[in-house]
Amino acid sequence: MIEVISEDRCTGCNICVNVCPTNVFAPVADGIPVIARQDDCQTCFMCEVYCPDDALYVAPHATEITHVTVAELEARDLFGSYRKSIGWIRGGRPRPAPEIMQRLEHR
Amino acid sequence: MAFPPTAASTIPTASLELDADVLVIGGGPAGTWAAIAAAARGAKVILADKGFCGSSGATAPSGTGVWYVPPDPARRAKAMNSRWDLGGRLADPAWMRRVLDRTYDNVNQLAEWGYPFSDDAEGRSIRNGLDGPDYMRLMRKRTKAAGVKILDHSPALELLRDDSGAVAGAAGVRRQKADTWLVRANAVVIATGGCAFLSKALGCNVLTGDGLLFAAELGAELSGMEFSTAYAMALEGGSVTKTRFYDWATFTFEDGSPIPGAASKGGRSVIARVLQSRRVFAQLDKADAETEQAMRYAQPNFFLPLDRVGIDPFRQRFPVTLLLEGTVRGTGGLRIVDSTCATTVPGLYAAGDAATRELVCGAFTGGGSHNAAWAMSSGYWAGSAAGEHGRHLRGRNRTVLRAGGVGVADGSGRAIDAATLTRAVQDEVWPYDRNYLRSGERLTDSLGRLDGLWSGARTAQAASLDEAQRTREGVAMLATSRWMYRSALSRTESRGMHKREDFPEKDDNQLHYTTSGGLDEIWIGHERAPSPEIEVLAA
Asked: Is B25 left (phi over 0), alpha (psi -120 to 50) or beta?
């Protein structure tokens, strides 16, 4: 579930409010958005993918809250890690050589 | 034409009222292809999505194969044959051919639109796979570029009809504005996806069968609802249902001993049986370092939860579960009556997972490449036909009436408690021993309670604006579960994904499509499936 909006990173653009398919966030006048309906989070990670500031963290647990903190996430370098792995960063992501990708075709 | 007795049948109003030639409900792959195709026919098009067109649905957060096969007769024949028996021989060769043709053109169109396909060693573009975030971001952009008006966060609650029974638009709520919308349209495309019963399978919680309910309230028919037993593997407690890489897994009990017969393909029901009483562990120990590299590139989201909880799936065992994907990766849905993806209701079309995929997949999971191909093909056909139909009726002055029933129509009883209703439906459709491993006795037992829930709900007063979406989702899931289990009860054999413990064998006297419909009383019928004698599959 979505657990963290980093106050240091978030610029209040409210893109997450818009892109969340299950309407989990709510905008706040003159502030950064809040996680208003955490139970509705379907753990699809789309808010993280669309966040231009790498300010969001979705824990992989769909049914329980882990209480992970901003400090832990910064220490483990997890903010923005999914965006990076799908290549939504400058330079994209390197594709392994074709003979390596072919390894997936034989099973 | 008879309407359900609960239908509201009153003249509707809303905070935002719009007119269009075509309304598309749902903004995933099928809906966006439909909207673009309708606009290309000169129609004025509105697309309403429950969430956000571009991130909503099963495709956006995922990666998917696409049934993209170049038009070489030998390769096409091989592609069609490969799933023929798996699908219980219920697919329709003529439709498979059409979908292969249409998908080939549509994927090539994606390349022209700038989708970033990679090249292989010989410099040829690889077009048999799409990354969900990139694909759906591009589809949103193209939908807007086509002049389509998109209503995000605007769940539909019901269809509108005219006095002849033809569809005349839809109405719903704008949940971020706390008000209502209404679109009068001459043609409507239902592209609301399948129904996964809020299981939290990846991206699936917006897929609650809403479009099936709306269409059925206008008298539309369903087909293949017994093929609704898709369960996908995920890390225990997680949401990422990417099952493919479990082909490289060994499955064990908690103590590390192997589970006899367990496999992702062909042994998943063994896993379901064990999961009823014990935990199941997996380890991708059949993959080497280079395969791992390829996997990490091909499906980064498979590794996302594992990396975050600190599990190395190649070197460590990790607990897995099976999450219900229902008709999303099943094949049942609204019945298609012709090549334009029309339903039995005038002006109403169905596309993507909201429509039956038996035509292209038969009785076995439409997940992955076939569903993706079907979504873009059926979306294109439904949108094109809706565009023509909508424009043809332009300027016609029609009476517009509400068509919604339970949960939006006013009744004498108390309003439905959506959370309680949803939980009660889930209790009948989530358990492996009810849905995955079916028996006549347990299906009948569940249907008794599900029918009771319907009787209790059908006189409810209309939900409040705040509760309307959840209420209608609950009602849609309830209706879907009853079509599913009635259809499953009527198919007294095991075919494709539909497995009956009391009828474990295939019975070729049942080589038919199971049709269903109705709300208060559910009816079951049969349609003849195309037989291989009529059209031989060989090249």
From this structure: beta
Distance between CA B342 and CA B326 in Å, rounded?
23
CA distance A95 to chain B (A): 7
Tell me if chain B has a CB within 8 Å of the CB of A75.
no
Are B133 and A107 a contacting pair at CB < 8 A?
A: no
Low-confidence ranges of chain B (pLDDT < 70): 1-10, 366-367, 531-539
Q: Tell me, yes or no, if B65 comes closer than 8 A to chain A by beta carbon.
A: no
pLDDT tens digits for B386-403? 999 999 999 888 899 999
- Strand duo B348-350 + B179-190: pairing: parallel
Q: Which value does ipTM take for this structure?
A: 0.96
Residue A54: left if φ>0, alpha if ψ -120 to 50, beta else—which one?
Answer: left
Burial code (b: 16+ CB inside 10 Å, e: under 16) for A19-53 equals bbbbbbbeeeeeebbebeeeebbbbbbbbbbbbeb
Total domain count for chain A? 1
CB pairs under 8 A between A and B: 122
Q: Helix B289-298 and helix B300-309: axis angle, to 10°?
A: 110
* Res B9: pLDDT: 55
- The answer to whether B268 is a known catalytic residue is yes
Return the residue matching tokens 């995000």: B152
CATH code for the part of the protein at B230-326: 3.90.700
CATH code at position A9: 3.30.70.20
**Residue numbers in A near B55 (CB within 8 A):** 19-21, 44, 46, 49-50
* Domain B16-228+327-402 annotated CATH 3.40.50.970: no
B141 in A contact zone (CB under 8 Å): no
What residues contact A105, with CB distance under 8 A and at least 6 apart? none
Q: Which of B268, B335, B438, B495 is catalytic?
A: B268
